[in-house]
What we know:
By secondary structure, this protein is α+β, with helices and mostly antiparallel strands. The protein folds into two domains: 15-135; 144-303, no CATH class. Helix content is 31%, strand content 21%. It is built from seven helices and twelve strands. Strands 1, 2, 3, 4, 5 and 6 form a six-stranded antiparallel sheet that branches. Strand 4 (68-75) and strand 5 (80-85) form a beta hairpin. The longest helix has 25 residues, at 15-39. It starts with 14 loop residues before the first helix and ends in a 5-residue tail after the last helix.
Amino acid sequence: MTSHPAPAAWPPLPLAEWQETHAALHRWAQVVGKLRLAGTPWTNHSWHVTLALTARGLTTGPLPYGERFYQAEFDFLAHRLLLQASDGGTSSVPLEAQSVATFYSRVRQALQDLGIIVAIRPTPSEIADALPFDRDDALRPYDPDAAQRYWRILLHAERVLRHFRARFRGKCSPVHFFWGAPDLAVTRFSGRTAPPHPGGVPALPDWVAREAYSHEVSSCGFWAGGGPVPYAAFYAYAYPEPEGFSTWPVQPQGAFYSQEMREFILPYDVVREADDPDATLLAFLQSTYEAAAELAHWDRAALECALP
């Protein structure tokens, strides 16, 4: 048996140092995510498309193919995409510097080697003006150390988000990884319907966004950053946003409301550098939820529960 020193739970992850690797992973995750989309029945709020964290990376979980099943897993320890079939067949695609088109072609060939042919729509979702997978032939870098640190952060963020989720007995999503944004998210519901979402998400049908936000939500999660927030961060928002939400006094110090994003933002480094990162993150999750629940008059007594 081989043991290794435990890595830091909350390692540094400055976006500027691995932004191009993140962009590559984003598109590769979309290729794999669309396999899950093709192999699972529609579930409310698009919960059927998400990926799940594992002790080595991110997985689709088992997908049906005739009488067989297969799954795809990003392995950020061996730096490969592992494809496994229920009849024992395995294949893999290396995670290395390559174009999206090359990765897409390799995934299709690896599946074909297992006797599996799955048709997916090759247009990326939620990325404005993105090239289809088979036409995105620019070489993209891959920083294995940064990718591995990202996955470790996702694991610890999921662990804390699960504790937060356990405090709620109302309708609540799993903690899951959406490859569209991409982000790790968990969403609580008040139980009341919401006004129709305006849509307008790049490369996403408006009906998908409207179904996703068909009911009042308080949502939170983690993403690696981008756009107006050029660093890794935790976020929280409400839909519809109640009056006074943006000025609610949330915790901890360092959290703020982004007018451009219309979300509360907690920079990842505030959590990473805290004496108690878990408590710091939980304070953010709880106080931003209370902003939504109090201002929108949720039935908190019926929806919340104490941890044993």
